[in-house]
Design goal:
The chain is built from 6 helices and no strands. With about 110 residues, it is mostly helical. The chain is elongated.
């Protein structure tokens, strides 16, 4: 028999997500299509973040993605930045900004 992930042509585990939805008490009943949809959405978001972070790593001449690359990639993208507005990424550091004091000094 083929798994639900294979049937939906997904990498993320549909069965595990279904189990988490049932055990999490988010609703009394969970439809059979809900975990498939959620797995597809999560897979898409992860693919998007990894792609942007890899571009950032390549720009910085690095072969590996580290938390700093993920932070810079998320904050550079408008939609993803709004999605993770209140999220702290451990090891990500802070966004580089030119402070007002430095700008005044330069003039």
């Amino acid at each position: 028999s083929t798994s639900r992930s294979e049937r939906a042509n997904l990498v993320f585990p549909v069965g595990r997500i279904h189990r988490y939805l049932k055990k999490g008490n988010y609703a009394k009943r969970i439809s059979s299509s809900a975990p498939v949809f959620l797995a597809a959405v999560l897979e898409y978001i992860v693919a998007e973040v990894v792609e942007l972070a890899s571009n950032t790593a390549r720009t910085m001449k690095r072969k590996r993605i580290n938390p700093r690359h993920i932070l810079l990639a998320l904050r550079a993208d408008d939609e993803l930045s709004r999605l993770v507005k209140n999220v702290t990424i451990p090891g990500g550091g802070v966004l580089p900004t030119a402070s007002a004091a430095r700008k005044a000094k330069a003039e």
